[in-house]
Design the sequence.
């Protein structure tokens, strides 16, 4: 469980609408701060500071926001991050304000661990069907990641479902319990068929039976 937050200082933004292009040319990113008990604010921050905060939070760690020239801090999550489709530059960030004693829903990354006897039987690998799972918890109790132990996949047809995930503390999994999280996949190549109808060989990209997470997009 994460118990600490990332901090960032924002500044009040005067330029709105299409004029924000002027800010981006100066390395300043427009942001919005909003929430159930918070008035929507148009703010801004240096791009390098935004990138630092986003990289440190990983999408699951709260970001503590302060506003230059104002007292107090606000616990937030970066909920909407817009990127330029070609250059990959960050264009805009929305910060959702939350309170420490109010549960929020969040997407948490899944990580495969362990070895699967079922995958080893067929020379396959265990692959994730979903990269993240939705949980509900207090902001400071949201895990940075959830491990999926594949030791229980002992047969080639076994699958790991959302309902099989074990989490600690007061964390609730919202994703449908019947959703398939991980399964065994056999990578086949074009091989001559033997007289008994079987392939002469199979190839895999990883050692048989080991966990394999999908490549980051």
Sequence:
């Amino acid at each position: 469980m994460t118990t600490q937050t990332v901090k960032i200082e924002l500044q009040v933004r005067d330029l709105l609408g299409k004029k924000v292009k002027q800010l981006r040319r100066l390395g300043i990113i427009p942001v919005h701060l909003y929430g159930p008990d918070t008035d929507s604010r148009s703010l801004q921050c240096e791009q390098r500071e935004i990138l630092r905060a986003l990289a440190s939070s990983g999408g699951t760690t709260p970001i503590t926001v302060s506003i230059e020239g104002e007292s107090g801090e606000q616990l937030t999550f970066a909920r909407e991050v817009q990127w330029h489709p070609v250059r990959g530059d960050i264009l805009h960030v929305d910060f959702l304000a939350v309170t420490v004693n109010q549960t929020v829903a969040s997407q948490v990354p899944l990580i495969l661990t362990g070895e699967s006897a079922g995958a080893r039987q067929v020379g396959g690998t265990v692959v994730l069907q979903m990269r993240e799972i939705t949980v509900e918890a207090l902001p400071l109790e949201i895990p940075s990641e959830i491990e999926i132990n594949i030791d229980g996949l002992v047969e080639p047809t076994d699958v790991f479902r959302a309902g099989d995930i074990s989490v600690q503390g007061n964390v609730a999994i919202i994703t449908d319990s019947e959703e398939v999280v991980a399964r065994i996949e056999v990578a086949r190549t074009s091989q001559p068929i033997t007289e008994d109808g079987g392939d002469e060989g199979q190839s895999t990209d990883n050692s048989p039976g080991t966990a394999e997470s999908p490549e980051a997009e």
Q: What stands out?
A: The two ends are 25 Å apart (CA to CA). The first helix runs from residue 20 to 25. The CA atoms of residues 161 and 180 lie 4 Å apart. The helical segments are 20-25, 47-57, 117-122.
